[in-house]
Design goal:
The complex is a heterodimer of chains A (833) and B (103). Chain A is mainly alpha-helical and 833 residues long. In chain A, helix 7 packs parallel to helix 9 and helix 9 runs antiparallel to helix 11. The longest helix of chain B is centred in the N-terminal third of the chain and has 29 residues. Chain B has one domain. A two-stranded antiparallel ribbon of chain B has the order 1-2. Helices cover 75% and strands 4% of the residues of chain B. Classes of the chains: A mainly alpha (833), B mainly alpha (103). Chains A and B meet through helix 9, helix 10 and helix 21 of A and helix 1, helix 4 and helix 5 of B.
Chain lengths: 833, 103
């Protein structure tokens, strides 16, 4: 097969139909990635307009441009849009588009999940923006502190829009995090050991793992606050044993790692672009990996520095102040590695490099003011002033937007296949750079002069007038810069001439494919022996196009790519990913209906979309697989590999595992909240506890024994299937489902007979929350084993094809283990004297 | 996955130790352990100091992990992250001897 015929055959398999059908059904990672990037930029523009309105309001004292109610919506939506609808989706889009190309793969591990995440993001973002248009946008600040966001002080739906809209969007973030993690760990080109991976992939791997652990506390906090607002369960009401500080803890447990979740992908862009601009290799690859692991962990020990003024004991302040200062060390290691790389190479001041220089200056200033704010006495003075606003913008715009603009100019020829002209891009840089510094440097000064953040106006006597006016002028200059950037990109897309691939002479694999890339990315997959494969083999691109790599022969219309052993990069199996389908958009729409029902207060009606999602999930999982064993497949270069359904470490198993890690973090956050309230909150111990009784003991014992039995039976079903005894496997799966049903019944009995009313006290509310968590997971385990049984009956399971049963076992194990923890936490207080 | 586990071990221990110290401090203050005098200090102070020192020692003990690493890269990164974890434990836990526990 020659290169052209191979291209046509692969394009027929991987391409998407044109028109609305293609738009709605495509699951291709390039399509989804580009949509994320474009949508994120649109949301950025909306957030930017809100920022300009904020600056217009503050430009002069006593301004009547907008009143306080609208102003509250402006700054809340500005922060929320920039954090949740711009920054995270922007790097998710870049990762979805770029990662398979950098890793020498043809797609991400779960293309339908990418598409589902995209639609959830679009629908959730639309709900948030629509609320702005209808005048009911969130108005309690982007961190939604209670009691301001509680029902008493925000009686309208403004806070509900935030809590439900953001949670809807977070589904997209968790989906992307799992997708990115599994894709990096498994879907790399053969030979690409972890220590040969491009640094961008390391950064994205660590970021995605951070997201898996950091987002659940926010999701939990949002659920608890929404339940408090909807059903009066007093998690955050101090009069009934709750605490507003619990919200702050849950929010910042997410919120501070979030800063690094935003920064690290941008740092990955720097580590990719900077060595190319310096015409050398990155200095200190291993040190950078170690530094980024250190940042990832340390960033989870800083959250309380947002709460230094809440009256926390000195020792706790000391812990978090020290950790906050410490995180500067690994960050500095990275900066020194970048400076060393520049020193080592022969830097060229091309456009991406210009933006990187802007990054260096702004980010270092932001980092230094961060160290200032990590010091408790200074923070007490500057807390909630414009100094903090200036700091966070220096860190986020310096640490995210400038590197991403560098990345945009670096990879634009890859997206479009066209040549770059630098003139407008340089003008845009100087407008953005100058406008940014004028805007935000002034805010340091207004902050130090005592200007509080979020005030909608001020009087002339405060002495802030000139500084605010200059700051506002700067913000408009910056906005012109971003507009010029958008015009430059549009002109590039529509007017620039075609250009050869790899204009920068870069060494990473994304430049080994035609530009703009075809739907299948790469005609055959390389054997990687170097961190920069193209540097060692400049003719690699042509060789791969000729089919000299792996999986060069299209077959059966399958979308094939390679999976490797996670550490060594040795060939593991062939993954056949699913093709275009309407399932993601339909499932996202039904998920959106669930959130809209909640927003409208139609709680019983919301059960309908829940049932819909379950049915669609079943259909989703059912659509994969074959009813016969395939056996080892030839993959080229004289080698064979099994198909993923017949391999032990299939992506589906890994994805389920990381989903459960996120789930476990959510439970850990709930247990933390329960313990926190018990130890710290006022009005404890509760007036009414779970009372020990015979019925309670029986119900708890039955639940525990049934859950354990369900686990044993799920394992037995898997073992029988591995031995080829399918009737026995089917019987065990049916018995496991029955055991899970008994668990459900026992838990319902326990909750109806033993728990106090959830509105009475935070203790009762937490107990109900824990029990509902276990109920939900027993139901999920029931569904999983039932699905396994149906798959055996349908002929989809054999001794070689056991993925469904292994996933069912995973969920059964998790359900039983968490039930044991929940029962101990619930019953220990009941047994206490 | 062994590479990721090994290179994260020192920092994972720091995360565990940091959470443990914070939890012990909060629990001790809530239940009055700082009121119990013990060896010219308080029960809470001694518990915190002992825990802190044990955590630092455990962090350093993890240096052994670097020895069994399968490649130079893994060895170097493991060494760096274990030392980073132990140093972070030493510094971020130091308030147990420097500040008042519950005030």
């Amino acid at each position: 097969m020659n290169a052209l015929r191979r291209h046509r055959a692969l394009e027929a398999i991987w391409g998407s139909p044109t028109g609305w059908r293609g738009t709605a059904a495509s699951v291709n990672h390039s399509d989804i990635g580009k949509r994320f990037v474009v949508a994120a930029f649109v949301f950025f523009a909306i957030g930017g307009v809100l920022a300009m309105m904020i600056r217009a309001q503050l430009a002069t004292p006593g301004s009547a441009f907008v009143g306080p109610d609208i102003y509250n919506q402006l700054f809340t939506m500005h922060g929320s849009i920039m954090m949740f609808l711009f920054a995270i989706p922007m790097f998710e889009g870049l990762a979805l588009y770029m990662l398979p190309k950098l890793l020498g793969s043809r797609d991400m591990a779960f293309p339908r999940l990418s598409a589902y995440g995209w639609w959830c993001y679009l629908f959730g973002g639309t709900i948030l923006i629509a609320s702005l248009a209808f005048g009911v946008a969130p108005d309690g600040g982007w961190f939604m502190y209670t009691p301001l966001s509680s029902k008493a002080y925000t009686p309208g739906i403004n806070a509900d829009v935030w809590l439900l809209g953001i949670t809807f969007v977070e589904i997209s973030a968790i989906s992307a995090a799992i997708e990115i993690t599994v894709s990096i760990l498994k879907l790399r080109a053969p030979g690409m050991r972890l220590d040969r991976m491009p640094l961008f992939a390391w950064y994205m791997l660590v970021t995605a793992l951070m997201m898996i652990v950091a987002f659940p506390p926010l999701i939990l906090g949002s659920i608890l606050l929404e339940v408090e607002r909807a059903f009066d369960w007093p998690f955050f009401d101090p009069a009934r044993g709750g605490s507003p500080l619990l919200w702050q803890h849950l929010f910042w447990l997410f919120g501070h790692p979030e800063v690094y979740i935003i920064f690290l992908p941008a740092a990955g862009v720097i580590s990719t672009v900077l060595p190319v601009m310096a015409r050398t290799r990155i200095l200190g690859y291993g040190w950078i990996v170690a530094a980024l692991l250190a940042i990832a962990f340390l960033s989870f020990g800083l959250w309380v520095h947002h709460m230094f003024t809440t009256g926390i004991p000195h020792m706790a302040l000391g812990f978090f102040s020290a950790a906050s200062a410490l995180v500067a060390v690994p960050t500095a290691v990275q900066v020194f590695a970048w400076i060393g790389t520049l020193w080592n190479g022969r830097p060229e001041l091309k456009l991406p490099m210009l933006y990187l220089l802007g990054f260096f200056l702004i980010f270092v200033i932001g980092g230094l003011t961060g160290v200032m704010l990590a010091m408790v006495p200074f923070d007490w003075q500057a807390h909630d002033t414009h100094f903090v606003v200036a700091h966070l913008h220096y860190v986020l715009i310096g640490g995210f937007i400038f590197p991403m603009l560098a990345g945009a100019y670096y990879w634009l020829p890859h997206f479009t296949g066209r040549a770059r002209e630098d003139l407008l891009g340089r003008a845009a840089f100087w407008l953005i750079f100058a406008g940014f510094n004028v805007t935000f440097f002034m805010m340091h000064l207004t902050g130090l002069l005592g200007m509080r953040r979020r005030i909608h106006t001020y009087s002339d006597e405060m002495g802030w007038t000139l500084l605010n006016l200059v700051s506002s002028v700067g913000s408009f200059v910056m906005a012109f810069g971003f507009a010029l950037f958008a015009i430059d990109v549009a002109l590039h897309i529509y007017l620039s001439r075609r250009r050869r691939r790899n204009p920068w002479n870069a060494g990473t694999l994304e430049w080994a494919m035609p530009v703009p890339t075809p739907a299948y990315n790469i005609a055959s997959l390389p054997l990687v022996a170097d961190r920069e494969p193209l540097a060692g083999a400049p003719s690699l691109a042509a060789a791969l196009a000729r089919g000299e790599g792996y999986l060069a022969q299209p077959r059966h219309g399958w979308r094939e790519t390679m999976a490797v052993e996670t550490t060594t990069g040795a060939i593991d199996h062939v993954v056949v990913v699913p093709g275009n389908t309407f399932l993601p958009i339909v499932t996202a729409a039904v998920t959106g209906c669930f959130f809209l029902c909640l927003l409208a207060g139609q709680y019983w009606l919301s059960l309908l979309p829940v049932a819909g999602v379950v049915a669609l999930g079943w259909r989703w999982a059912w659509g994969l697989d074959w009813r016969k064993d395939i056996g080892p497949l030839p993959i080229g270069r004289g080698e064979v590999a099994p198909i993923h359904r017949e391999a032990a470490g299939a992506p589906g198993w890994w994805g389920s595992t990381f989903l459960l890690v996120a789930d476990g973090t959510l439970l850990a956050s709930l247990l933390f909240g329960y313990a926190f309230l018990w130890v710290i909150a006022p009005n404890w111990p509760p007036p009414e506890r779970i009372e020990g009784s015979l019925l309670l003991a029986i119900a708890a014992a039955v639940a525990a024994v049934a859950a354990a039995t369900g686990t044993v039976l799920a394992r037995r079903s898997l073992a029988a299937s591995v031995k080829g005894s399918l009737p026995s496997a089917q019987r065990a799966a049916l018995a496991a489902a029955a055991a899970q049903a008994v668990t459900l019944g026992a838990l319902v009995t326990l909750s109806l007979t033993a728990l106090p009313a959830p509105q009475a006290h935070a203790y009762a509310a937490c107990s109900w929350a824990l029990l509902i968590y276990s109920l939900l997971h027993a139901a999920i385990a029931l569904l999983c084993v039932s699905f396994g049984r149906a798959r055996i009956a349908g002929g989809h399971v054999s001794a070689a094809r056991t993925l469904d049963l292994r996933v069912a076992r995973l969920f059964s194990d998790y359900s039983a283990a968490t039930l044991a923890i929940v029962l101990v936490c619930l019953l220990a207080p009941a047994l206490a004297p | 996955m062994s590479l990721l586990a090994r290179t994260s071990a020192g920092l994972l221990l720091w995360a565990f130790g940091f959470s443990l110290l914070y939890a012990l401090q909060g629990t001790g203050c809530a239940y009055g352990w700082q009121e119990i005098e013990l060896f010219r200090g308080t029960l809470l102070r001694w518990i915190l100091v002992a825990t802190w020192l044990l955590l630092v020692a455990a962090g350093l003990a993890l240096l052994r992990l670097a020895r069994s690493a399968s490649s130079d890269f893994e060895k170097r990164v493991t060494l760096a992250t274990v030392l980073a974890g132990a140093a972070a434990m030493l510094v971020s836990g130091s308030p147990v001897v420097l500040t008042s526990a519950c005030g």
